[in-house]
Specification:
Elements: E1 2-15, E2 19-26, E3 30-36, E4 55-63, E5 66-76, H1 85-101, H2 108-123, H3 130-142, E6 163-166, E7 171-173, E8 182-185, H4 187-198, H5 211-229
Parallel strand pairs: 3-5
Antiparallel strand pairs: 1-2, 1-4, 2-3, 4-5, 6-7, 6-8
Bound molecules: zinc ion.
Residues 152, 154-155, 157, 173-174, 176-177 line the site of zinc ion (ZN).
Length: 237
C-alpha cells in the first residue's frame, strides 16, 4: 500500500549499513516510523529529507508492516535552525515535546503549531526560550490544560498580587486556597506568560521579558509539563 503524507522529521537514527530510521510526525496519521534506504551513502539524493526539522511530502510504501520511504518532496528544511546552537537546542526541545505527546492519531492543531514554531525559530530573531514557551502554552491550551485565568481556580476570587500555581491541578489559586503542592508565582512571571500567550509568533521578536521572569516562566512550564504528562522534555541548555 502506498500513502502520501505531509510530515516533519522528529528523529533520525542509523539503521542497518546505509539506511536511516525516521520518526515522522505526519498531518494525516500522527506519529509513525519509516526507513529510508541508502541515504547514508555519500552521493545519496534527498540529503535534507532524512534530517530532523525537515518538512516535506513523503511517499511511504507499506509492505508486511514495514514502512519504507520511496520518495520525498521537501517543502521546507528549516536548516538554519541547526546552524545556531541556541536555536538548535530550542528546536530539539520542541521536537521532543511533539514526540512525547503524539501517537498514531492525527493531531492537526499540534501539526500547525509545530510548523509555526519552527518557522519563527528559523527565520526570525526571537529571544531564547520564547518560541518554545509560546509553543508549549499553545499545546497546553489545545490539550485542555489552559491555565492563564485571573481568578482562583478553587474559590473564584480575583487574583491580585499573591498568585500560586497548584501543580496538582495545573491552575492558579489564591493565598487562602494554596496547599503544599503550590508554588508562588511572581507578577512578572504571570505577566510574561500572558504576553507570550497573546503575542503572535511573527511579533515575538519585539517581546522582552525581564531576565528573572524568563527563567520563572520556563521553569513553571517545565514543571507543569511534568505534572500533566508524567514525563519531561529535553531541557534547553
Ligand atoms: Zn482561592
Amino acid at each position: 500500500m502506498t500513502t502520501k503524507v505531509k510530515a516533519i522529521v522528529l528523529r533520525a537514527i542509523d539503521y542497518k549499513d546505509k539506511d536511516k530510521l525516521l520518526t515522522l510526525f505526519t498531518l494525516e496519521q500522527g506519529k509513525l516510523t519509516a526507513s529510508m534506504r541508502g541515504v547514508k551513502a555519500p552521493k545519496a539524493k534527498l540529503k535534507f529529507a532524512k534530517e530532523p526539522f525537515c518538512f516535506g511530502e513523503y511517499i511511504i510504501e507499506n509492505t508486511k508492516g514495514n514502512n519504507v520511504i520511496t520518495q520525498v518532496e521537501v517543502i521546507e528544511n528549516f536548516f538554519d535552525i541547526t546552524k545556531d546552537i541556541d536555536k538548535f537546542y530550542e528546536g530539539c526541545a520542541i521536537l521532543d515535546v511533539v514526540s512525547k505527546l503524539s501517537n498514531e492519531e492525527p493531531n492537526h492543531a499540534m501539526f500547525i503549531e509545530l510548523i509555526k514554531a519552527l518557522k519563527a525559530l528559523c527565520y526570525s530573531n526571537v529571544k531564547k526560550y520564547y518560541v518554545f514557551d509560546k509553543f508549549l502554552l499553545k499545546i497546553f491550551e489545545n490539550m485542555g490544560y489552559y491555565f492563564l485565568s485571573n481568578k482562583c481556580s478553587s474559590c473564584g476570587y480575583d487574583l491580585s498580587d499573591n498568585r500560586y500555581f497548584n501543580l496538582d491541578v495545573g491552575e492558579f489559586v489564591c493565598e487562602k486556597c494554596k496547599n503544599n503542592l503550590c508554588v508562588k508565582i511572581s507578577n512578572a512571571c504571570f505577566a510574561g506568560l500572558k504576553f507570550l500567550a497573546q503575542t503572535d509568533y511573527d511579533r515575538l521578536p519585539n517581546l522582552h521579558l525581564g531576565g528573572h521572569a524568563e527563567i520563572e516562566v520556563y521553569n513553571l512550564l517545565d514543571k507543569n509539563f511534568e505534572w500533566r504528562f508524567s514525563k519531561r522534555f529535553v531541557q534547553i541548555v
